[in-house]
Amino acid sequence: EIVMTQSPATLSVSPGERATLSCRASQSVSSKLGWYQQKLGQAPRLLIYDASTRATGLPARFSGSGSGTEFTLTISSLQSEDFAVYYCQQYNNWPRTFGQGTKVEI
Amino acid sequence: EVQLVESGGGLVQPGGSLRLSCVASGFTFGSFEMNWVRQAPGKGLEWVSYISSGGSTIYYADSVKGRFTISRDNAKNSLNLQMNSLRVEDTAVYYCARGWQRLDYWGQGTLVTVSS
User: Fold this and answer.
1) B73 to chain A, closest Cα gap in Å
2) Which one of A5, A38, A46 makes the best mutation probe of the B interface by having the most chain B beta carbons within 10 Å?
3) Distances in Å between the alpha carbon of A85 and those of A1, B23, B25?
4) What is the pLDDT of residues B18-65, one digit of tens each?
5) Fewest CB within 10 A of the end CB: N or C in chain B?
6) With helix as H, strand as E and coil as C, how does chain B read?
7) How close A30 comes to chain B (CA, Å)?
8) Are B106 and B93 in contact (CB under 8 A)?
9) Which residues pair with B83 in a beta bridge?
10) A12-67: per-residue pLDDT in tens?
């Protein structure tokens, strides 16, 4: 099983600041990686797939990068609606596995 | 508009059974692979099971293998999860989600509580 490790666990930022979230895989997942956003009491929402492709309608302030074992989600200028928990997920192998999440808070 | 609506959650005793359903609309259900993903209270996401569009290929997480059975009825646009021999650690919100690789649409989830 591929273990996904996200850092940091919690990221404290102010609106308008840049946020950088990291995700590391225990073995290469190529570019088969997605990022999801989950707000309190809501279902997860796909943000980024194939490591760097934005989902339909996603604002350009969200960007993803990386391949192999190291990945990054960047939010260039945090808006109030971006405060949430973010998960990475690999889909290169079965079982599909998620990171433990990064909480982005004020 | 794509919609996934789960149902069937509730309170069940350890060792009991429960059947979850997910009804899909807004897309050609029979053309898409589907999954169940769960989230224990206050915890992260855990992929549970996958079924191919025609139902011929199925995968399970080790934590549920032999106890849970995924199935689908493409004529009724529905996805199911039969959960047997339930354990306290199966307590979670269960989401259905569309996709083979990325999970591009999710339902709102149904809560399963396993407790005596």
Assistant:
1) 23
2) A46
3) 23, 27, 27
4) 999 999 999 999 999 999 999 999 999 999 999 999 999 999 999 999
5) N
6) CCEEEEECCEEECCCCCEEEEEEEECCCHHHCCEEEEEECCCCCEEEEEEECCCCCCEEECCCCCCCEEEEEECCCCEEEEEECCCCHHHCEEEEEEECCCCCCEECCCEEEEECC
7) 13
8) no
9) B18, B68
10) 999 999 999 999 999 999 999 999 999 999 999 999 999 999 999 999 999 999 99
What pLDDT does A106 receive? Answer: 80
Torsion sign across C-alpha atoms B47, A56, A63, A10: negative
Side-chain-side CA neighbours of residue B97 (13 Å): 27
Residue A53 three-state SS = strand
Name residues whose C-beta falls within 8 Å of residue B17's C-beta, 6 or more positions apart in sequence: B82, B83, B84, B85, B86
Backbone φ and ψ for A66, nearest 5 degrees, come out as 110, 170
Measuring CA to CA, which residue among B4, B20, B5 is closest to residue B84? Answer: B20
> If you count them, how many residues does chain B have?
116
Q: Are strands B18-25 and B10-12 parallel, antiparallel or unpaired?
A: unpaired
- Give the position of tokens 């992929």: B47
Q: Which residues have a Cβ under 8 Å from the Cβ of A84 and sit 6 or more positions away?
A: A37, A38, A39, A40, A103, A104
The span from the CA of B63 to the CA of B56, in Å, is: 21
CA-closest candidate to residue B43, choices B93, B113, B106:
B93
Candidates B59, B102, B105; nearest CB to A34: B102
